[in-house]
Amino acid sequence: MSNENGKKEIISVLYDAQAIDKRLDEIAKEIENDYAGEKITLVCILRGGVVFMVDLAKKIQNITVEFDFMDVSSYGNETVSSGIVKVNKDLSQPITGKNVIIVEDIIDTGNTMSHLKNHFVSQKPKSLKLCSLLDKAERRIAKDVTIDYIGFSIPDEFVVGYGLDYAQKYRNLSYIGILKFEE
Ligand code: IMP
Ligand code: MG
Fold this sequence. Notes:
Blueprint: E1 8-15, H1 17-34, E2 39-46, H2 50-58, E3 64-76, E4 81-89, E5 99-107, H3 111-121, E6 127-135, E7 149-153, E8 159-160, E9 176-182
Parallel strand pairs: 2-3, 2-5, 5-6, 6-7
Antiparallel strand pairs: 1-9, 3-4, 8-9
The structure holds inosinic acid and magnesium ion.
């Protein structure tokens, strides 16, 4: 696929659908064990987290699961988010007293999550954990962000697929790939 600058976009596979599926089995089991006998609310951060959350949720069958969704935009320049977050769509239900797991596509600088966390904590959930498909730890700026469930730790590369986009494209890929540009 070519972008508006006429550059060819090349994607090399980092994790294929089978590898993702296997890792999701493991995370789902971990969550089922950690919350045995409890009810959880998975909060998807739109839009990147949606593919991951849906597939993960289908693998969690031993405990009661509720869904909620939040849509945020993070201001910043092209490469570093500022962490100044605009809430485009807030939670539909109060999370007070609930076991909340935030489901994200990727934690990069961590600035977005650092800000979002405060938004959640202020509502006094019973517990709050963070589950991210990808962790780009090398790029972390916000030191107060810890990820409780990590799908894969990845190097500092721009990745797309399985929910992650470049200019809103590629979210529908069944795999996670590294995006490169060629003349
Ligand atoms: P933050 O830098 O941790 O605040 O990340 C902000 C957002 O940038 C993430 O939620 C993603 O939507 C996006 N992002 C960061 N790295 C990548 C990437 O490699 N591919 C696609 N989106 C990314
Ligand atoms: Mg995101």
